[in-house]
Amino acid sequence: xxxxxxxxxxxxxxxxxxxxxxxxxxxxxxxxxxxxxxxxxxxxxxxxxxxxxxxxxxxxxxxxxxxxxxxxxxxxxxxxxxxxxxxxxxxxxxxxxxxxxxxxxxxxxxxxxxxxxxxxxxxxxxxxxxxxxxxxxxxxxxxxxxxxxxxxxxxxxxxxxxxxxxxxxxxxxxxxxxxxxxxxxxxxxxxxxxxxxxxxxxxxxxxxxxxxxxxxxxxxxxxxxxxxxxxxxxxxxxxxxxxxxxxxxxxxxxxxxxxxxxxxxxxxxxxxxxxxxxxxxx
Length: 282
Prior knowledge:
single chain; 282 residues; alpha+beta; seven-stranded antiparallel β-sheet; 7 helices; 18% helix
């Protein structure tokens, strides 16, 4: 039963919102450094991510991770780890709190506590023309988690092994030599690359729609630290109908690592981890 509205309901609703995390104090993005990186890039590594599967690649600090759709519209679920320390991994929730529900050029991908530093910066996006559509949809979200076998089992029964969570678990295990059991706890909420999502205006429900990506579209991330990138080609294809299924048309993705000029790398300084003393009031 709906509760009756109080007499001052309209006044309460009219209270102006406040941005939770003003970002004026964040270190500014170094546009000159980004321009120098982009001015002279040469590919030094490349991996193909098969449809409904995942792959991993190492991205040295100062290099670029280019995620691309070589064949057609395809959504990818991305995990990032600090090389040598899997505990430092991408924190989608704090990235969302700082930059918004979808990332764009100039936004950073932050690591979790106790590190909380930029792992990568978005420096180029061939879909930056898309903006916000009439439904409120945008691309490259840090809203959704990842399709997984646990939710699929809960909602439909049965086991499905080519969802993004399982794909990422296998690829991380292969890249690190960990067992599946050891690797799985490190798999985390993702950057949904090329995915077009938003919230419905009436009920605020998370929605997805067909990705606007086409063959040749790409997203470039500048590695601020040495990274292990693990990417799943979602079994939902362009996610225009469903995910975690074998019915959607799926394409491969690619991860390429371009290297900038030597003078850029000579001057490279990785961001420091959080300066908080860790005492937590004790």
